[in-house]
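SAMPLE LOG
Freezer: B-3
Tube label: C17
Construct: single chain, 286 aa
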Amino acid sequence: MGNLFCCIQVDQSTVAIKEHFGKFDDVLDPGCHCLPWVFGYQIAGHLSLRVQQLDVKCETKTKDNVFVNVVASIQYRALSEKANDAFYRLSNTRSQIQAYVFDVIRGTVPKLNLDAAFEQKNDIAKAVEDELEKAMSHYGYEIVQTLIVDIEPDEHVKRAMNEINAAARLRMAATEKAEAEKILQIKRAEGEAESKYLSGLGIARQRQAIVDGLRDSVLGFSVNVPGTTAKDVMDMVLVTQYFDTMKEIGASSKSSAVFIPHGPGAVRDVATQIRDGLLQGSYAQQ
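STRUCTURE (predicted):
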């Protein structure tokens, strides 16, 4: 009906290409336009000005010979001021963009190792965007954004990378565990050394106290009981300790049986044996 009355409607975010006897004449913006078709005017087609997206999957290999699939997302749109170039100069816009993406990715990724490719995704996207912007601007298109949305290596490569990462983490955990055990052993050894040192000091002080007590007892007994000698007092102390030991052995239910010769005349023999042992130890030290 619009063509019957020589009127045409152009929708929003769209331009129409007007021709006169098959030759480009004008670009019609959104709205209502008069088109006297009886004088040879016609609409060759419509061109969308909306942002469009093209996902390109490109297979290539890295510098360390790992094959990867790189997925690039290209967002582009036609420019209204260059609508005639966008309509007439390209027959297949998507194929043209895809060809440029393949060219840039296969020229950039082979220069990088696999790890570097993951780290430099933005640099790869920037290289693709710069090349597309330079090429597609001649055809009336603007590159809005270029994204590298995925870099996917072969399944075997991903499994190997995961195993390498797991092995590295296990090695780190083993190192930390060994360091912790080392610290525990060092602290335990330091504690045992300190304990033995303090135990030695306690034994030494105990023996010193025993010696001091015996000396004071011998001196006090010699003074209070006239006619006794230090030897007599020592014999009495040794006999007293002997009976105290026998008493402790008999009172303990868990002690082993100890048989010591004794009898009515054995007390003096025991004292003599203990005294002789002390004298022999003194001579050996000299």
